[in-house]
Amino acid sequence: MSLTEMSLSDVIKRQYEFKLRAFLGVFSSMAGVQLISFLFSLGGVSSVGTSSSTGMSINISYYSADMVVVFTMIWIFITGILITTKAVRYDDFSFVANRLSSNLANILFLLTASVIGGAAAVLAGFMLRIIAFFFGDVQYGLGNSFLEAPGEFFISVVAAILYMILFASLGYLTGMIVQVNKIFIFLLPVLFTGIVVYLGIRNVEVAKAIFDFIFAESSLLLFAVKALVLSALFFAGSVVLSNRMEVRT
Questions:
Q1: Strand 46-51 relative to strand 57-62: parallel, antiparallel, unpaired?
Q2: Domain count, the chain
Q3: 174 inside domain
Q4: Considering the entire predicted model, what is its pTM?
């Protein structure tokens, strides 16, 4: 019998480091997802044009990382689900651990993935503008560049990371719900579709209010509070649900 007793923080640290090594493939998939969305965005996310009777025409294309951010949110949501699977949970039995340490290590991993994914998605937007400037037939202004607007760049990165954390926590909660009872694999999509259809047809104002509450907040501080509170609730719900799972013997 060993007289050495590991603290909770030591166990969490070891599990976290193990997950970083074990889930390197997750970051490869992130790169693939962002590359695909990046290629879709090369033509611009939107464009407007006009012409005159003299034969002069003007076409304006807008380049942003919006599509990359959306694809990355889908990626982190799926990652949050995958990290709750039974095979991943059984890997934690390689350590002297409990469900609390496993959940905290999973949350730390998802937070790390959210930071990397969010920052990379925003940087893709600047890469799009660089490519458009050097290889596209466009006139590009530097008014929104990183060098002239570092504050805007910082806000974009923080906002993207917060979105990733929110969707990671939602995916983690979804995965835990499915692990508690497999019937939710079918019930959750049906329930989600029903709610979307119901709000879209009969309660448009409620749907708009929910959308504006999450996606249309103009204050970064308020958005950070909303996103972090919701994420904390989702993660806390996941921890509570994990205590209802069967114990491996």
A1: antiparallel
A2: 1
A3: yes
A4: 0.83
